Amino acid sequence: MKELVCVTGASGFIASWMVKLLLERGYRVRGVVRSPDNNEKCGHLERLEGAKEGLTLLKGDLLDPDSLSAAIDGCSGVFHMDCPVPSYTSTNPKVEVLSHAIKGTLNVLEACKNSKVKRIVMTSSVAAMAFDLHKPKDAPLDESCWSDEDYLRESNHWYMLGKTMGEKAAWDYSQKNGLDLVVICPSLVLGSLLQASPNTSSLVVLKLLNGSSDSYENSSVGVVDVKDVANAHLLAYETKSASGRYLCRNKTVTRAQMIEIIRRLHPDYTLPTRMIEPQISLSMAK
């Protein structure tokens, strides 16, 4: 088998596909999860082809440096893919998200430095780019764009702020400590689920399917398949010349186009029919 790598947040939507791809390519994988014995959350990983020989699940938390050090020690590479989304029951989403996004990321990088990891590939998000208030209105979104932190804070967009601040902290730490960091910034990630429960991005489609509303806001969004995102991470790891940050997106679609695709594939579903003009539209063109 190939070298040993670590995947944080291994039971997540994108990370699960990352683990699957790494095992298929012959890597030995340490997956960091909160509850490795929880079959509902981690059983799909243990059932992956090659998992018995190549996958080890370890209990870890981004705010527990010792657990991260144990998981990363001896690894050639790290795929840092763990980032919390505010829960509906959270009483303090600001603290819940920002502490993990910033301090958690720095804990991962500290462990990488101590273990002399050769390359870190980190999952950021288009959310760290899309709210760049200094970008000319008609200019396309690209890797030079950074979301405005003050705007996100004032708008209570804690996930987006966490992604922005977490990535900036990662770049600052990596540059000061000589770490080889590559960042992938995917747009809305859709595709088949490996895990039992739907993730946040999948809810964008599920909300169109569940009949909860007869209307939809016809906003546009960049989309990309989860398998392509996992492959982008692997390419970023294996390609020596890879550097910096990469926006990962396939195409831009409107909600109306999403609904039409679903209607064509699944005509029995009751889908929203009344269109509402979007309040905010973001250019995702490249």
UniProtKB/TrEMBL annotation:
Annotated InterPro entries: Epimerase_deHydtase (IPR001509), NAD(P)-bd_dom_sf (IPR036291), NAD(P)_dehydrat-like (IPR050425)
Keywords, ordered alphabetically: Oxidoreductase
Which GO molecular function terms does the record list? oxidoreductase activity, acting on the CH-OH group of donors, NAD or NADP as acceptor
Protein's UniProt keywords contain Nucleotidyltransferase: no
Which PANTHER family does this chain map to?
Answer: NAD DEPENDENT EPIMERASE/DEHYDRATASE, NAD-DEPENDENT EPIMERASE_DEHYDRATASE DOMAIN-CONTAINING PROTEIN
Q: What is this protein called?
A: NAD-dependent epimerase/dehydratase domain-containing protein
Give the domain of life: Eukaryota
Q: Which residues form the NAD-dependent epimerase/dehydratase domain?
A: 5-242
